[in-house]
């Protein structure tokens, strides 16, 4: 267990480097903002460590905003408890627009129902938009005797059980729901993060795994096949694998990278920030990052995120109540 | 196999003056950061990654590799000179390195450390370059069942670290187990002993704990021991008239070749298995070496074999950790995970297609790794004289200065005061444990191994449907269990019959 948290200092250095880049390119567009806003640097509080996926997105968006709006943005990492440490800190901040949190939707839709310790719920925040949807898939080793969800379920029925390595509560819930729907014994095996879960599957120690991004390369290399897309639609790198909805289930695993602020923000400032973020998600630099992640920019906008968060929170509140 | 042209093109890309300067800069930064207790190499990597954005891919990766390798060598310096290891892996080096330094041979101890470290590093890099693909396949076969048995084996050998009193050592290790229970429990995610604090959900922060228990407690210990008369003196004296105390001959290095070779093998195997890490390798190697020795009592008194066992093994992990990363796309530890993000920022997706798509770059990276090893040797030679000069300052300067660095370092690393509080509380406990003869090292290694053991046990139960007889279908696991039994039955009594003095550096 070598769980080192990367530093806030790293964040500051990163911000300084990005700020230097932005200064070279100069301001271009401007969102519709109240007079005089912002009068000081804005802080992005990223709920995960420096060097991770969410962190990379945060830094890319921050750089794009600096370039497009000419603002100063400081990226700060507050890792811990799947974004919970950041969300708890953010809740205490004044809703003045100078502190913006960044996390996955799971931070507000899953964490509060997982334990009683969580001081916040999704309703304690306003949402400015989102940047990307995570393409969850159920994947298995290529040499396993199943290529689709139906064949996998049949295999599990014959064997009496099948194991699925997972990383995180939302994936555990998804596996349990599949088991319930098809009435077979699927055993979620919690890994220490997505890489550990992938390793269990690649080594043949479990029968399948749920993954958010690392499976794409394995599919392209022909090592693994996607049994099902766990999100609401099919994915470009495995167009033949059906969604759970197509397989007759009323379930999808929906998670977005989102921007959140403490509740009660002035409407004008909120609109201004939401516009700035929207412009940034359409920037060229961010598109390049998404290409590297084998994904696409997707901003649901303030209302869209609000709707997803409310829906997923209700879903997990019920799923985790027993 | 890759085409020769690709290999040569990659190496040609690497061996340029431009890259050499960046590798040299990386190694220098890494050694300095590694040598300062409280700062750690992961923090240095996280800071460095955004700074490499404007460099070309190979130069950027070469620079980061340099930082990573330099840090591993630098970590031994405070462990040897001040007995204040900043990371769990260098704690094993302190066990023999510091006693040697206190005998008036600090340069000799640092040279041993540097040479064996570079040996382990180069050897594991060669393994990475030549047989990484088959080795990665073997490492993949190490599933939860095998890891569980490996952890059981590790625990049986760790008794070699417990110090003078077996009972006190086991109490210390057990305390480590118990503290590892803090945080979200792996099966259901139920919080244990978190008292409603979200900061404790991911467990006690290891870097703050390690610095507190290992380094700051030693600083407290030294401050408490010092009297007015000696407070102006330095702990480690550089003034030795015998030139043999300052240098290490080739003959002396080769005298421990089998120890170093075994340490490198242990480090490479542990490193190739994702998730285990250099602390496990260093301690495993040190304990095995000590227990296999005819004269285990000489360990802890400044035995070069102790330094060889620890340094070769923890450095071998650095190269081997890239095996699962480059062949499968699985980062073996946090440092490797940070390299992944550097790769991705530069548009390279680590994974099974990496060799095929980016062969030239990978061989360039290998070239940079070899350059970094040589730079390590050179920078280390110059650096050790500088460090030796620094610790020549009076205790009244050195220990308060080190304490200040620990506090600020952890404040930055952990992103706030919480880490500093954990570090200071750990230091007080560590000080009390040392005062009453409980092994701090046994405690911290118990803490490190327990989290892995618990997770592997849980995964094994789930995968085997709680039928532990299934273990017998896993040959590697059976071998490890047999080794554990041998270790307990054979090595236990042998140790009991021969009580030793001063088996651990900090118990004086």
Automatic annotation (TrEMBL), chain A:
Transmembrane segment boundaries: none
Record key words, sorted: Signal
Keyword Signal listed: yes
Signal sequence bounds: 1-30
Top-level taxon in the UniProt lineage: Bacteria
Record flagged with keyword Signal: yes
InterPro entries: BUG (IPR005064), Bug_dom1 (IPR042100), TAT_signal (IPR006311)
Family according to the record: Belongs to the UPF0065 (bug) family.
Protein name: Tripartite tricarboxylate transporter substrate binding protein
From TrEMBL, chain B:
Annotated DUF112 domain residues: 20-445
Protein keywords: Membrane, Transmembrane, Transmembrane helix
InterPro entries: DUF112_TM
Bilayer-spanning residue ranges: 20-49, 112-139, 170-188, 200-220, 322-348, 360-379, 386-410, 470-491
Tree of life domain: Bacteria
Pfam assignment, any one: TctA
Protein name in UniProt: Tripartite tricarboxylate transporter permease
């Amino acid at each position: 267990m070598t769980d080192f948290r990367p530093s806030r200092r790293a964040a500051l250095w990163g911000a300084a480097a990005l700020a230097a880049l932005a200064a070279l390119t100069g301001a271009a567009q401007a969102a519709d903002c109240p007079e005089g806003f912002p009068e000081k640097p804005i802080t992005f509080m990223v709920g995960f460590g420096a060097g991770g996926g969410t962190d990379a997105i945060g830094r890319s968006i921050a750089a794009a905003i600096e370039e497009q709006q000419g603002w100063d943005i400081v990226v700060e990492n507050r890792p811990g408890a799947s974004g919970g440490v950041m969300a708890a800190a953010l809740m205490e901040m004044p809703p003045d627009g100078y502190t913006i949190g960044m996390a996955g939707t799971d931070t507000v839709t899953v964490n509060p129902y997982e334990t009683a310790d969580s001081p916040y719920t999704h309703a304690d925040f306003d949402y400015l938009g989102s940047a990307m949807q995570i393409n969850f898939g159920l994947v298995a080793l290529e040499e396993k005797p199943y290529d689709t969800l139906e064949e996998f379920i049949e295999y599990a029925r014959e064997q009496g059980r099948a194991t699925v390595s997972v990383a995180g509560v939302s994936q555990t819930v998804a596996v349990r729901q599949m088991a319930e729907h098809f009435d077979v014994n699927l055993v979620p095996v919690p890994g220490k993060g997505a890489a550990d879960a992938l390793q269990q599957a690649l080594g043949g120690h479990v029968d399948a795994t749920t993954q958010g991004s690392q499976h794409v390369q394995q599919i392209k290399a022909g090592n693994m096949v996607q049994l099902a897309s766990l999100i609401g639609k099919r994915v470009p790198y495995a167009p033949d694998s059906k969604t759970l909805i197509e397989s007759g289930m009323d379930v999808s695993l929906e998670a977005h990278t989102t921007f959140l602020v403490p509740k009660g923000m002035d409407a004008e400032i909120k609109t201004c920030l939401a516009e700035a973020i929207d412009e940034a998600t359409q920037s060229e630099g961010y598109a390049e990052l998404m290409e590297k992640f084998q994904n696409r920019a997707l901003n649901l906008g303030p209302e869209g995120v609000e709707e997803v968060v409310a829906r997923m929170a209700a879903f997990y509140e019920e799923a985790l109540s027993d | 196999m890759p085409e020769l042209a690709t290999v040569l093109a990659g190496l040609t890309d690497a061996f340029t003056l431009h890259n050499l300067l960046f590798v040299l800069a990386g190694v220098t930064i890494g050694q300095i950061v590694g040598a300062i207790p409280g700062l750690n190499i992961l923090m240095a990597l996280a800071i460095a990654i955004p700074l490499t954005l404007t460099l070309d891919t190979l130069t950027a990766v070469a620079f980061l590799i340099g930082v990573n390798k330099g840090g591993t060598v630098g970590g031994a310096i405070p462990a040897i000179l001040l007995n204040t290891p900043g990371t769990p892996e260098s704690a094993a080096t302190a066990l023999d390195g510091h006693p040697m330094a206190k005998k008036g041979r600090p340069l000799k101890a640092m040279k041993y450390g540097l040479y064996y470290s570079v040996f382990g590093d180069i050897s594991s890099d060669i393994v990475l370059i030549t047989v990484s693909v088959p080795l990665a396949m073997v490492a993949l076969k190490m599933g939860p069942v095998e890891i569980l048995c490996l952890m059981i084996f590790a625990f049986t050998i760790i008794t070699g670290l417990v110090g003078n009193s077996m009972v006190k050592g086991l109490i210390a290790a057990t305390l480590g187990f118990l503290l590892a229970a803090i945080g979200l429990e792996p099966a259901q995610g139920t919080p244990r002993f978190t008292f409603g604090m979200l900061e404790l959900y991911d467990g006690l922060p290891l870097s703050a704990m390690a610095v507190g228990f290992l380094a700051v407690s030693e600083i407290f210990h030294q401050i408490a021991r010092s009297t007015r008369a000696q407070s102006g003196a330095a702990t480690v004296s550089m003034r030795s008239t015998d030139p043999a105390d300052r240098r290490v001959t080739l003959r002396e290095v080769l005298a421990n070749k089998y120890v170093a070779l075994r340490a490198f093998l242990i480090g490479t195997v542990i490193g190739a298995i994702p998730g285990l890490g250099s602390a496990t390798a260093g301690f495993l190697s040190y304990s095995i070496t000590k227990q296999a020795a005819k004269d285990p009592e000489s360990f802890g008194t400044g035995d070069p074999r102790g330094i060889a066992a620890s340094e070769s093994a923890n450095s071998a992990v650095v190269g081997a950790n890239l095996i699962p990363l480059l062949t499968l796309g699985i980062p073996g530890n946090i440092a490797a995970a940070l390299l992944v993000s550097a790769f991705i920022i530069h548009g390279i997706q680590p994974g099974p297609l990496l060799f095929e798509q980016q062969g030239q770059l990978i061989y360039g990276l290998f070239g940079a790794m070899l350059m970094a090893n040589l730079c390590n040797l050179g920078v280390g030679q110059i650096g050790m004289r500088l460090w030796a000069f620094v610790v020549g300052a009076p205790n009244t300067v050195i220990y308060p200065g080190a304490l200040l660095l620990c506090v600020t370092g952890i404040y930055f690393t952990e992103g706030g005061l919480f880490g500093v509080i954990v570090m200071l509380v750990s230091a007080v406990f560590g000080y009390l444990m040392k005062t009453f003869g409980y092994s701090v090292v046994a405690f911290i290694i118990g803490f490190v191994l327990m989290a892995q053991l618990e997770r592997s046990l849980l995964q094994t139960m789930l995968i085997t449907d709680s039928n532990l007889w299934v273990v017998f279908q896993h040959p590697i696991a059976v071998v490890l269990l047999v080794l554990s039994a041998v270790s307990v039955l054979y090595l236990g009594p042998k140790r009991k019959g021969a009580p030793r003095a001063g088996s651990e550096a900090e118990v004086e």
